[in-house]
Design goal:
alpha+beta; eight-stranded antiparallel sheet; 4 helices; 15 strands
Amino acid sequence: MFVAFRVSDKLSEEIKMRANGIGKSFLVGAILAQAAGASIIIQSTGNSHAALPLGYYAPWAAGGTTPTVNAVSWTQTSDYVDVDVFANLFTPGSPGFVNYELVNAIGPGTSFAVNGLLRGTAITPINPADVLLFHVPLLRAGTYYLVLDSPVDNTSWLFGYQPDGTYNLAPGVSFQGDQWAYGTGINAAYTPASNFFSTVVPVQFAVIGTAAAPEPATAGGTGLVLMGFGLLLRYIRRRKG
């Protein structure tokens, strides 16, 4: 369930440009690509979708006294359009909520102004379910971090203490790993700037979208090609003459 999100200035400006027609050639390609249907960009698999998960790690560990923040990362070498990002979430007993950020870097020294793409809050269900965190019209090639945190005790997004997660990956997509921050290492003002460490407990998430069609040649490039053909024809005619 989607609640709210804030888009960074970089992403919102690009959306505005395309809405104003600057990116019309790309949007035509995107519409054609959508006809092929969305597919998995990256999806973690495991037992989180089972009726009775093996167990879970909440963002409040050790008896509900220590909050934690988790981040999962992937790299994609292609652009995708109409992208949906899900996480498997729940808060036992009553609904809770999870805060999320999509950023291109984490750790001390990062900020939403420089590294952020969007952020928001999603309501968690009582029972485990894939929750739509957000939708973006365009996700460029690059490396991304999905950061999750919640002030609600026992809110969960991690299932089954598995040494290694398994992943469905689109061509050109690679999984970069799971990380977490906890205790005094958490930056309360901006959680992606926390001190993160690698963890073997996999975040259950999915990124679904449609591969963007290649952008057509620019008008300038087409003009140069046509000019080249024109010069070649003139040369052939002179030779024949």
